[in-house]
Amino acid sequence: MKYAFVPLAAGLITFATSAAAADPESCRTVRLAEPGWNDLAFTTGVAQTILSALGYEPQTNLLGIDVIYLSLKNRDLDVFLGYWDPAMQNYFAPYKADGSVETVGTNLTGAKYTFGVPAYVWEAGVKDFADLKAHAEKFGKKMYGIEPGSNQLMLDTVADPDLGLDGWEVVESSEQGMLAEVARHIDLKEFIVFQAWAPHPMNTAYDIRYLTGGDKFFGPNFGAATVSTQVRKGYLEECPNVGQLLKNLTFDIDFENRGMGYLMNEGLSPTDAGRKALVTEPQRLDAWLARVTTIDGAPGIDAVKKALGL
Question: Signal peptide position in this chain (predicted)?
């Protein structure tokens, strides 16, 4: 009978040994990339905050999309939280084909990008791209975009004879300039149509609606998009504990709207914004840290809560 307990004891020893080292030392430095967009600066800041609390040493690199993918392929980067699909399909295609960049999973659904109007304009009957023509004078035959070079889809709508927008002007300035116009028009209860997207703090700062009818230009479902987490080939196997965190780490539009507001309205750094978001909404940690430990194998949830003062 005493020999029957040997396999069980050996199994317990093996389990204890594996639990004591969640990831090898080579995984301590986690190299993340982001392209300088506020949504990805915030989500990367959240990831950095959690990784630091788990004993890792996250590093961020601000790079263009093309350089991010080349760096992942060359193993100079480990993680990218910002694959927007379908907008970035052409960038990802060659790396998907050769298998050098792997998709972990979707971390955000419900993203969108199309025309927006204040709620009172929508309630007045401007609910679709086709409704713009009938209200042209109230809009002053103007629509507001962001930086020059980023409004081609808006210019395409003006040029489309089916919409009857001949003579409309696309006012190009900047994201901040456009939102200043939105705020001014809303204060005066005037009509305005502008580039709108989510996630973005505009969705919580103003009561806005998205117009239907733009599928030809922005795609279906209000220019719907998903955002996914990607890693260099083999990273999930090399660093399975970080990999588990990346699989767990999903966001939602409201959370990102608030977090981007910490960056844009309060001037916080990405890591400070990430920390504030986690302290404000600690209930998210249970799901994000399920089956995740510190790099040394201790319970991850305890370490992160302690680091955040929770």
Answer: 1-21
